[in-house]
Amino acid sequence: EQARGEEADHRSDIWSVGVVLYEMLTGKLPFGGDYEQAVTYAIMNEEPEVTDEVPSNMQAILQKALAKDQAERYQNIDELHSDLKSSEESSTSRTKAARKVRKQGASNKTTLYLGGAVVLITLLAVAYFLNRSQPIDSIAVLPFINSNNDPDIDYLSDGITETLITKLSQLPQLRVMARNTVFRFKGKDMTAQQVGEELNVRAVLTGAIVQRENALRLNAELVDVSDGAQIWGDQYNRTMDDIFAVQDEISEHISSSLRLKLSSDDKNRLVKRHTEDTEAYQLYLKGRFYMNKRTGEALETALEYFQQAAVRDPTYALAYAGMADCYVLLPQYAGFNGKESYPKAKAAALQALQIDKNLAEAHAALGLTYVSSELDWKSAEQSFLRAIELNPSYATAHHWYGLSYLCMRARFDEAISELKRALELDPLSLIINNNLGSVYFYAKHYDLALEQLQKTIEMDQNFYIAHWALGNAYIFTGQTFKGIEHLRQALQLEDDALSLASLGYAYAISGNIEEAEKTLVLLDELSAKRLVSPYFFAMISVGLGDKEKTMEFLQRCLELREYWHILLKVDPFWDTLRGDARFVELLKKVGLEN
To answer: Are residues 208 and 234 in contact, defined by beta-carbon separation less than 8 angstroms?
Structure first.
């Protein structure tokens, strides 16, 4: 079936059992050849040779098990088992008769072969089909290969992958590896089985697309990680207008092949479409493609594509959710004014929820706006928990809830638990690995923070924010010079105010006042080019022991409603201020102190 490009099912497995049975009885494989193509040719065109040493009733069983036409093959394993039992009984009767005419030796040999075959085939079949009948509870969808090798349609191959991940993550019984993790394998020379073993999942979906103008060819294959066998595979030759139907079909085939018991609600979620407009969908995919680059420029480009998708289809909830994500992230990555950006994020998230109240992505983005802009901690927690309830496999919801809510309120054990849950879903995400280290840092578990952040840097030496976080961890364990080394590395990788502020603090507490004051000047020069949070100026000022300026900067940060003010309760940079009445009052304004 695979060689002909047809759909394989349980009868293909029965054919495989026939191959094993043939080899048991004859001592050789039914189809031979010196190279793979020759073997494939033999399988498709030749009949296996069976000598007279194999009893005629067994020859008939082999012929039926190895039939090239599925309809002529055994239709279920019980039929094959029944014929094997009948063959054994018939052979035993013949053996008893043969003893009377002193032909015991040859007949006993036949009986032994048949009896052993029945026992082994029974055990093999039971073990194999019991294993195959168990639901598969975890899967990784690897990035679909862009067979055109055209970077201009990377958004399509990546987007189809991400859509399938999103669809499958709606199923509560299934653990689905998140996008950040699977995309770490993009372009790597690894088999599906190797990837599955590394990610500790039971199945892996691979695929490839070819686009020619409006024509679309898509191949997909689902692999069992335990043995590398194909569970399901198919090829789709459609047009771009059929892209939604293809994705629905693939999702349904996967859920069926994984033997998941789905409720009617599960099935509806699996095939739910957020738009019927293929052009709006492609604009949305381009938005996701750029958003995942996580640079200021790319986020602005992503926002434009999401806005275009929403104009094309004003009922497209995911487009508004994408806009909300961009507005939430732009203050951190592009220096946007939080006081302007977060209200836009909230408006976009609410628009998405007005269209689809059960959209987990919108609830998570809304939760972050409640925290960062409105300091409405109660509503924030409700939004994060609703996102997790709607999609327990949405790693970002666990990540943001753990870091931006639980950690900031010093509920560290719960925060660590949520970050670890996010890592189960997205184990190769650099930012989640980094932020688990950050939670350890804020909880003052400095040894655990150092270990986790070093692990993150081992995953990617060029991930600048991990160097920044590791530099901070070294500073607060008294290893200031090691901290300075990592902060300098962070600055070499990214000209970022965050790293510059930590470096200025490190210089100040180590007594290098001149260099600390230089960093203040550099921050000031940087602020002429883009928005630099007052929080960063405060970090250097507190290192220099200037409490008055520090409090002025922190008050200004709160007025601007930037993300950074929510760290005030837990960030060790402010430990020297905790007895100051003005700082306590500031915590009350942020909602972090009674």
So the answer is: no
Structure tokens at 203: 């199945």
Question: Which residues, including other chains, have CB under 8 Å from residue 45's CB and lie 6 or more apart?
Answer: none
Angle at 281 between CA 280 and CA 283, to 5 degrees: 65
Q: Which helix (H) or strand (E) holds 239?
A: strand 230-239
Rounded Cα gap, residues 226 and 88, in angstroms: 33
Q: Which residues contact 258 (CB under 8 A, 6 or more apart)?
A: 135, 136, 139, 174, 203, 222, 231
Q: CA angle 309-301-380, nearest 5°? A: 75
| Chain segment 385-418, per-residue pLDDT in tens | 999 999 998 999 999 999 999 999 999 999 999 9
| Segment (H or E) for 140 | strand 138-141
* Amino acid (1-letter code) at residue 91: S
Burial label for 44, CB within 10 Å (0-12, 13-18, 19+), is exposed
Query: Residue 358 has which token pair?
Result: 């059960």
Reply yes or no on whether the pLDDT at 589 is more than 90.
yes
The pLDDT tens digits of the residues spanning 167-189 come to 888 888 889 998 889 988 988 88
- DSSP assignment of 40-72: HHHHHH-PPP--TTS-HHHHHHHHHHT-SSGGG
At position 343, the amino acid (one-letter code) is P
Q: What is the pLDDT of residues 292-335, one digit of tens each?
A: 777 788 899 999 999 999 999 999 999 999 999 999 888 877 77
Q: What does the alpha-carbon distance between residue 542 and residue 544 come to, in Å, rounded to a whole number?
A: 5
3-state SS assignment for residue 414? helix
* The pLDDT value given to residue 449: 98
In a 3-state reduction of DSSP, which class is residue 15? helix
Cα–Cα distance, 17 to 487 (Å, whole number)? 61
Q: What CA–CA distance (Å, rounded) separates 40 from 293?
A: 43
Sign of CA dihedral 416, 417, 420, 422: negative
Element housing 265 (H / E): helix 264-270
Taking Cα atoms as reference points, which of 122, 19, 144 lies closest to residue 78?
122
Round to the nearest angstrom and report the end-to-end CA distance of the chain: 69
| Sign, Cα dihedral of 80, 83, 88, 89 | positive
Q: Where are the alpha helices (DSSP H) in 273-401?
A: 278-291, 296-312, 317-333, 338-355, 360-369, 377-390, 395-400
Q: Which stretches does DSSP call E strand in 260-346?
A: none
Cβ contact 128:139 at 8 Å: no
CA distance 245 to 251: 10
d(CA 594, CA 591): 7
Given a contact cutoff of 8 angstroms between Cβ atoms, the answer to whether 573 and 476 are in contact is no
Beta carbons within 8 Å of 588's beta carbon, 6+ residues apart: 594
Q: Which residues contact 64 (CB under 8 A, 6 or more apart)?
A: 72, 73, 74, 83
Report yes or no: 258 and 270 within 8 Å, Cβ to Cβ. no
Cα separation, 381 vs 373, in Å, equals: 14
